[in-house]
Amino acid sequence: MKVTKKDLETVALLSRLSIPAEKEEQYTQQLSAILDYIDNLSTVNTDEIQPIAHVLPISNVFRDDVVKESLDRDLALSNAPLKDEGYFKVPKILEG
Amino acid sequence: MKLFEQPSHVLHDMLVNNEITSLELTEAILSRIDEVEGDVKAYLTLTRDEAIAQAKAVDEKIARGEKISFLEGIPGAIKDNICTKGVKTTCASKILQNFVPPYSATVVNKLNAENAVILGKTNLDEFAMGGSTENSAYFPTRNPWNTECVPGGSSGGSAAAVAAGTAVWAIGSDTGGSIRQPASFCGVVGMKPTYGRVSRYGLVAYASSLDQIGPITKDVTDCAHILNIIAGHDDMDSTCVNEAVPDYTKALVEDVKGLKLAIPKEYFVDGMDPDVEKAIRDSIKKLEELGAEVVEISLPNTAHAISTYYLIAPAEAATNLERYDGVSYGERADGVDIVDMMTNTRSQYFGEEVKRRIMIGNYALSAGYYDAYYLKALKVRRLVKEDYDKAFEKVDVIVCPTAPSPAYKIGEKIDNPLEMYLQDVCTVPLNLAGLPGISVPCGFSSKGMPIGMQLIGKPLDEATLIRTAYTYEQSQDFHKSRAALGGK
Lengths: 96, 488
Fold this sequence. Notes:
The complex is a heterodimer.
Chain A: H1 5-14, H2 21-38, H3 73-76, E1 83-84, E2 87-88
Antiparallel strand pairs in A: 1-2
Chain B: H1 8-16, H2 22-40, E1 43-46, H3 48-63, E2 75-79, H4 106-113, E3 117-122, H5 156-164, E4 169-174, H6 180-186, E5 189-192, E6 212-217, H7 220-230, E7 260-264, H8 274-289, E8 293-297, H9 305-320, H10 338-349, H11 352-365, H12 371-391, E9 397-401, H13 417-422, H14 428-433, E10 437-444, E11 450-457, H15 462-474
Parallel strand pairs in B: 2-3, 2-4, 7-8, 7-9
Antiparallel strand pairs in B: 1-3, 4-6, 5-6, 5-10, 9-11, 10-11
Helix pairs in contact in B: 2-3, 5-6, 7-15, 9-11, 9-12
């Protein structure tokens, strides 16, 4: 699987990463080599095989709906890069 | 042997018999750190004052005639992707360089309840992505057996600290071999328990369906004791298994008679280091002499495990690491709007390997490629697991190398990510299948570097792994060898 410059741009956008021009060649080569190797999976017959997302036979873990102690707001906000009156503060989201 | 060379169980007995105090022991380890940490560089953060205070509190308890628990007063270290309340937890990433968790991981709470002395936080590959600790955003850790070599990874700091005597025990995490492979490279014991045996609450997520916390120790006895402390159900982790925890120390018996061990032929790969192959074959022969029955088996889908792992782990990582967006915690870079701010933050503060894995993951998950890559990997994951299910109908333990080679030189593989991934061939299949595995020292290469034997067990059958590993360990002296570190 050859990863093109355009593929790299698309996947970088999805990943919220910007790739500097001088690194594009290196990344396309490395990602191509990795995906080339991974392509050996296409030789495996999985027609009748159900996917598994994880290995434990556990599903729908419930607990009683009881309020428990949680982090207080100041502590929860203690690592925020920017905060204001008990809220996380971010740059402008909406235009206008 | 010097204090810093002793395992926890010997030191525990010395504390109980009033031969040493916890303060003497902790100071001995701290002076060992002063002596060799400059060469090894296992730690990202040291908590000397807290360690001393904890040691003094344990000594007061002993002086009052109170009984102490196994790890009480014994100094160890925690991998820096496990949250410690009030103590910086960086994941060896610049993006968390100032992150101080407001809570502790369940494992850390359990160790604190035990009054274990915590010396600090150990180095790793950034977000546990790597097998050499060279991907740390701060500095590479060095192998105590030869400081020009890598300690393995990603729990390289934890394994190197135990091997160098700068921690008596350590905690690591294992997503594709990150406890077992550095244990093998550093000549110590490392166990990845069954997926869900130990709570992951407070472990910074890399690949959630594969991650598991486990002990790195100087011998199998310490491993059993520490697993007793950290295993068990936790309401804070919905993937944690709700099954009773047996007393793993009861498995510390020298007896493998009647056990059926299997050698999977696919694990003796082309290009395997001949010293490794010889050490493993000799060890298997030893186990046979000790009374185990040995058969050869085939796990045919092993050949696809690396590809499967390097789709599933990056896909989960791409999702898990979306949280580093410069909003609620971690570093933030400037930007004209929110998308610009997020992109700049992630581009500036993530390292190369992390970016590579996020991009592979998003590629595999993206429209047009999802079925061919991610979904395909989930199907092959079932095939890998079914290979083991079938094998374990007939055998008790699978025996193989932990890694295809001993520790290599720093810088040797770092420019070729694919070659680095291929080194994980013996360890990743267990994570895909959720099985427990332990690496025990089983010899040295012609250059004097440690070699590890991996034992793989049935789900939740850590006890049989401990029994087999202990019987083997007691039959030889590899676990008593210590890294020379230039005679220090």
